[in-house]
Amino acid sequence: xxxxxxxxxxxxxxxxxxxxxxxxxxxxxxxxxxxxxxxxxxxxxxxxxxxxxxxxxxxxxxxxxxxxxxxxxxxxxxxxxxxxxxxxxxxxxxxxxxxxxxxxxxxxxxxxxxxxxxxxxxxxxxxxxxxxxxxxxxxxxxxxxxxxxxxxxxxxxxxxxxxxxxxxxxxxxxxxxxxxxxxxxxxxxxxxxxxxxxxxxxxxxxxxxxxxxxxxxxxxxxxxxxxxxxxxxxxxxxxxxx
Amino acid sequence: xxxxxxxxxxxxxxxxxxxxxxxxxxxxxxxxxxxxxxxxxxxxxxxxxxxxxxxxxxxxxxxxxxxxxxxxxxxxxxxxxxxxxxxxxxxxxxxxxxxxxxxxxxxxxxxxxxxxxxxxxxxxxxxxxxxxxxxxxxxxxxxxxxxxxxxxxxxxxxxxxxxxxxxxxxxxxxxxxxxxxxxxxxxxxxxxxxxxxxxxxxxxxxxxxxxxxxxxxxxxxxxxxxxxxxxxxxxxxxxxxxxxxxxxxxxxxxxxxxxxxxxxxxxxxxxxxxxxxxxxxxxxxxxxxxxxxxxxxxxxxxxxxxxxxxxxxxxxxxxxxxxxxxxxxxxxxxxxxxxxxxxxxxxxxxxxxxxxxxxxxxxxxxxxxxxxxxxxxxxxxxxxxxxxxxxxxxxxxxxxxxxxxxxxxxxxxxxxxxxxxxxxxxxxxxxxxxxxxxxxxxxxxxxxxxxxxxxxxxxxxxxxxxxxxxxxxxxxxxxxxxxxxxxxxxxxxxxxxxxxxxxxxxxxxxxxxxxxxxxxxxxxxxxxxxxxxxxxxxxxxxxxxxxxxxxxxxxxxxxxxxxxxxxxxxxxxxxxxxxxxxxxxxxxxxxxxxxxxxxxxxxxxxxxxxxxxxxxxxxxxxxxxxxxxxxxxxxxxxxxxxxxxxxxx
Lengths: 242, 649
What we know:
The complex is a heterodimer of chains A (242) and B (649).
Chain A: E1 7-12, H1 16-25, E2 34-39, H2 48-55, E3 60-65, H3 76-94, E4 101-105, H4 111-128, H5 143-148, H6 156-160, H7 177-185, H8 194-198, H9 205-219
Parallel strand pairs in A: 1-2, 1-3, 3-4
Helix pairs in contact in A: 1-4, 3-9
Chain B: E1 5-10, H1 22-30, E2 35-41, H2 47-59, E3 64-69, H3 72-84, E4 93-97, H4 99-103, H5 109-127, E5 136-139, E6 143-147, H6 151-162, E7 166-170, E8 185-186, E9 191-192, H7 193-206, E10 210-213, E11 216-224, E12 227-234, H8 249-253, E13 260-261, E14 270-271, E15 274-275, E16 287-288, H9 294-297, H10 304-308, E17 321-327, E18 329-332, E19 336-338, E20 355-357, H11 358-365, E21 385-392, H12 407-422, E22 425-430, H13 440-449, E23 453-456, E24 459-465, E25 468-475, E26 480-486, E27 488-493, E28 495-497, H14 501-508, E29 535-537, H15 547-567, E30 569-572, E31 577-579, H16 589-593, E32 599-602, E33 607-610, H17 620-624, E34 630-632, H18 637-648
C-alpha cells in the first residue's frame, strides 16, 4: 500500500476554518487525512502545538490563516508567519526538516485555494515520505535530538538559567523537558552556558541553542515583540517571507 | 471527581449518516475514556434531540457534552443554551464538526467514518479539560454610527433616530444622498429619484437626533459591541457651515475660469474650486476643493470668493478636525464604485466622444443635469441611434465575475427615457435579461413593446468608421456577427466594491468576500450582520442591490441595532485572555504585542494584567508569553494539545 501522510492543520477561525465550512456547504472535497484544529487567531499559535504533532508521528503540519492585511486582530497572521519560520528552524535542528511545516493564507471565500493548498501539501509530504521522528536513531540529521532524548527531567538547566523565572516552562503533557526548555529560551538565550555546565546528561545545550539562534538570526524576520498596538496606520503588511 | 461525558451523534437526516457510519461512530465513542453515554439521533438540533441531552444531564448526571454534528457556527449557541437550561456551564460542551468538515467533503464512507472518529476523539479529549466560564454582560449604548449617507445610510439613520437613538452619520462627500442623488428616474415605476429622495435628505438635517458629518471619514474604531469608540476625521471645507447660506455668490466669484470636472455630474460638467455640488444638495453649503483651489495649491489668488461672501463664511484657516464619539453599534453603508470603463479598452471609453457610462447618462437625462434633461451629443445635436451595452465589467472573466443585478433594469429604463426624449432608434446588447424584482419583468415587456431592438449578444468592441461609432457584437440568436453604426453608446457599467473597501474593512475589523464587497456573517440567515458583533451592513457595500433591496436591508440593519438597544445589554464571549499573577514575571512582552492595548502593567505587583473589557481573545499574548502565564480561555495550551493528541492518537 502506498504511503499516506498524517496531516494536521491549524486553522484561523476567521478565515481558513470558515472557508473549510464553506467548502463543506459546496461539497468540495479534499484529502481526508488532513485533520483540522481551530484557533481563535493564528497569532495564538504556540510552538508546542505543531511540535506536539510531530511527537505523535504527524508527517506534516499546515498553518492556514488570513490573507495579508486582513487579520481581524490586526497582525496575527504576520505573527503566525513569523513564528512558523522560527519553528521551521527548530524542526531543522531536531532533524524533522522544515518542509514538514508550512504556512499559507486563505480568504474565507477562496475555497479552491483551500483545496489546492491542502491537496498540494498532501502531495508534497507524500513525496517526502514518512517522518522518522521521534524514533530516529543514529542518523546525522537527528544528532541534536538524539542528545536531547537523554534528558532526565531534572530541571537543573532551568534552575541556573538567568533569564527563566517560570515554574512551568512547558505543557505538562509534553514529554521532553530538554526540548520544552529549548523552545522556551530559544529567542532570548544570552549564551551564558550555565545550563550546559550543569546538565548531568552532558547534553550540549548551549551548542544546540546557539545553532538554533544562528538559524533564526539568518531569517531576517520581524522581532518577537513587534508592536501591533499603535493605531491603524501601522497595520500595513510587512513582507516577511521574501 | 471523575467526569461523565455524554457523546451525541447527529445524523442530520442523511447529511451526515449517508457518508459517516453513525452506528460505528457511536460504538467507537463509547470506548473513549470518560464517556458515560453515547446516543445518536436523526436531528439533534430539534426539540426532542435537545431533550435527549437534557434528560441525560438530569438522570445520568452527565457533566460534559460532546455534540458531533454540523459546524459550531450553526448550532453551538443552541446546544449551549440547552445545557445551561439544565444548570450546566455552557462552556462544558464541545461541538465536533463532522458535517461541514467531514461528511460533506468526503465521499468514501469508510474514510469519512475514520476521520469522524478522530474528530470525536479529539472533542472528547478536549471537553474533559474545559473550564467553567462566565459569559460577560456588557451594556449597549443607545447610539450608533452610520458610515455613508447614501440611501442605505439615510434610511438606517432615520429609522433609528425616529426611535429616539442618537445617530452620528458620516459622509465623505460634501453632500448626502450618494449615487441615488445622481439618478434621473427609477425603474420600474419611473418615479423621479429626487422627488422620492429629497424629502428624506431634508429630514436628516432636520432630525435633532442625527448629527451629520460631511466631508468626513471614519479613521479608527476601537472597542466592542455596545461600547465602540470611533474616530471621525473631518476634512476642512474652508467654509463655516453655520454662516453659509448656500447663495452661490462665492461660486460666481471664483477665479478658476475653466474649472475642473464635477464629480457629481460624472465629469459631464465643470465646477469651480469653491462649489455647491448641485442645486438641491443637502446640506446646501459651499465647500472649497483643496486640490483645485489656487490659494491652497499655489498660495496665490485674488480671493474674490472671500469678498463676494456677504455672510463672511469663508475661512482659509480652517484645520482638519479629529472627533471621537462613543457608540453602541455601527452600520456600514459605504456603497459602491461604478466599474471603471478604462479597464476594458475595447469599448473605446475616453478614446472616442459620445461613449458614456450609465451614471453619465443619468446626469444627461436629469432635469437638473448639464443639459437640463435633454439628451444631446457632444456637438449639441440629438442622437438618432443609441446603443446600450449590458454587463460592462460584470459577468466577465476579464473584469468582475459577479452580476451587478441592477444594470439590466437601469439600461432598459434609460432606453425608455431616451426613446421618449429623442425618438431615436435604440439597441440593447444583452447576455440575459435579469428582471428579478417586483414589476421588473412587466417593465421589460413594456420596453420591448416600445420598439427597442434587443440583440442577444454582448457588445465585443466599439470602433470608429467613417465618423460613426460602430458597435460590434455577435447576435447569438441569429448566430451571426453584427456591426451597428450608432451616434451614442451607453456602457452599462457594473457595480464594484469601493476602491478603499480594504482599508475600511481593516478599520472595522470585518471581512471582505472574494469580489471585494463586505462579507455578511451568513449568506442566508444573517445577511446584515458581520463577523464583528455590533457592526452591521446595509446596501451595496455588501453586494450590488437595487433601491428597494437597499432600503429593506438598511431597515433590517436598523432593526438589528434597535433590538440590541432594547435589550440594553448583551452577553459577550467569555473566551478572553487572563494572566496568572503567580506565574507572570513582568517581562511586558504581552503588552507590546496586544493589538487592543488590553494589557496593563501593575507597577506595585510588577506583573501584567488583562483588562477584560478590552480583550477580544485573539491570543497573541499567549504565544509570546515566555512563561505561559497568559492563558487564552477556552483555547488554553492544554486544551489545544488535548485536541491535537485526540486527532493524531
